[in-house]
Every structure is written in C-alpha cells, then in structure tokens.
Amino acid sequence: MADPPQLHVVVTGELDVLSVSGLRGAVARRSADGCRSVVIDLEGVTFIDCTGLSALLACQQEVAASGGTFSVAALSAAVARVVELTGTAGRFRTMTLESA
After folding, report:
1. Are 78 and 48 in contact (CB under 8 A)?
2. Residue 99, pLDDT score
3. Cis peptide before 5 (omega within 30 of 0)
4. What angle do the packed helices 77-86 and 50-65 form, to 10 degrees?
5. pLDDT value for 100
6. At what angle do helices 50-65 and 20-32 cross, to 10 degrees?
7. pTM listed for this prediction
8. Where are the alpha helices (DSSP H) in the chain?
C-alpha cells in the first residue's frame, strides 16, 4: 500500500447520471478507510454531463475535507471541453499519467 494510501481510478465511457454512483462510492469508501490521495484518470471518458462534473467536484471536496489531495489526469477532449465551458478548470489539480 502506498504511503499515504492512494486511490487511482480509471474512468471510461460515459460519466453521467447512470454511472456516477460507482465513482462517488469508491472515493467515499476509500476516504473513510484513510485514503488521502485520489487520482481520477479521465482519458477514456467519451461523454460527461453536469451530473458527472458535479460528481467530480463533490469527490474533490470530500477528499479535501479529509485533508487529502484530489487530482485529475489525462482529460479526454469531452471532459476538457465541459470543464472549459463551465469555468471549473481551476477547481481541479491536474497531473500527467507519468506522475500519477
């Protein structure tokens, strides 16, 4: 196990109302178990809606509230566009996959 415990989630396909519960649940469980570093790889996301963006922001807030760090890596074109259009780019710490 990494020190501090780390969670690296690879998201593929659609990040929307039908799929966000899995992501939110995984982050919540690991945060409760003491995980303080969360990296979400979004390179394989083909579609993201407001629910998906909201879930990312909620996960970021949950991890930060527990004293951890939340990062997104490898934004797909779909995610990058939604983040840009909504003005939320500055809300996320981004990293390359090599440093993840």
Report:
1. yes
2. 47
3. no
4. 80
5. 45
6. 0
7. 0.87
8. 20-32, 50-65, 77-86
Judge contact between 79 and 45, C-beta under 8 A.
Answer: yes
The amino acid at residue 33 is D
Enumerate the domain spans of the chain: 6-95
Q: How confident is the model at residue 97 (pLDDT cuts 50, 70, 90)?
A: low
Fold for 6-95, please state it.
Answer: Transcription Regulator spoIIAA (3.30.750)
Q: Model confidence over 30-83: pLDDT tens digits?
A: 888 888 899 999 999 999 999 999 999 999 999 999 899 999 998 999 999 999
Q: In what order do the strands lie in the sheet with 37-48?
A: 6-15, 37-48, 69-73, 93-95
Measured between alpha carbons, how far is residue 73 from residues 31, 32, 33, 64, 76 in Å? Answer: 19, 23, 23, 17, 9
Q: Output DSSP code: residue 53.
A: H
